[in-house]
Amino acid sequence: MAAECYRDSIHIDAEPEFVYSYFTQPEALARWMADRAILDPRPGGRFTLVFGDRTVDGQYVELDPPTRLVITWGRVGSATFPPASSTLEVTLTPEDGGTRVSIVHSGLPASEAPRHILGWQHYLGRLAVVAAGGEVAAHVVPEVLTRGAD
Predict the structure, then answer these.
(1) Which residues contact 30 (CB under 8 A, 6 or more apart)?
(2) Residue 128 covered by a domain
(3) Does residue 118 lie within any of the structural domains?
(4) Is 98 a domain residue?
């Protein structure tokens, strides 16, 4: 059974074209979200994030630079949340000299929703810092995000 969609948004002090690259360029994405990213940003292209011993895997479904991306998302080796089993929609809108980044993560199993809510709150905060030119600590997955995950 899928949970309701998780929705969130943040303002980033950077132009949409620049922020968009943080979802399509491996080095940029790994600065805020993962240990390593393997990306092929085209419809049907690979979207893989490595978090320590866990891997998120999916595909880019739609790309409309620099305003929107749709990506499938799931965890390698998971019986309840397999690769490409949920969908992440990212919308970037110019706002006050920067960008409003809005996400909708749909199709999450009920068991994954609390973990992803905490995860998105954590990672969107990191994105806001790095995309605006700041530095964040080296990536470490908060233990609460992996506790109980298959």
Answers:
(1) 36, 37, 139
(2) yes
(3) yes
(4) yes
- Residues 40-45 have a mean pLDDT of 98
CATH number for 129: 3.30.530.20
Q: Which two tokens stand for residue 73?
A: 């998302």
> How many Cβ atoms sit within 10 Å of the Cβ of residue 142?
12
Query: CB-based burial of residue 19 (10 Å sphere; 0-12 exposed, 13-18 middle, 19+ buried)?
Result: buried
Answer yes or no: is 133 within a domain. Answer: yes
**pLDDT(123) > 60:** yes
pLDDT tens track for 59-69: 999 999 999 99
CA 137-38-56 angle, 5° bins = 75
Q: In total, how many domains does the chain have?
A: 1
- Its domain, for residue 15, covers 6-145
82: tokens are: 């397999």
Say which residue the tokens 């998302």 belong to: 73
d(C-alpha 126, C-alpha 39), whole Å: 20
Instruction: Give the number of other CB atoms < 10 A from CB of residue 72.
Output: 18
* Structure tokens given for 149: 């995950």
Q: Which residues pair with 87 in a beta bridge?
A: 72, 106
Strand partners, 93: 100
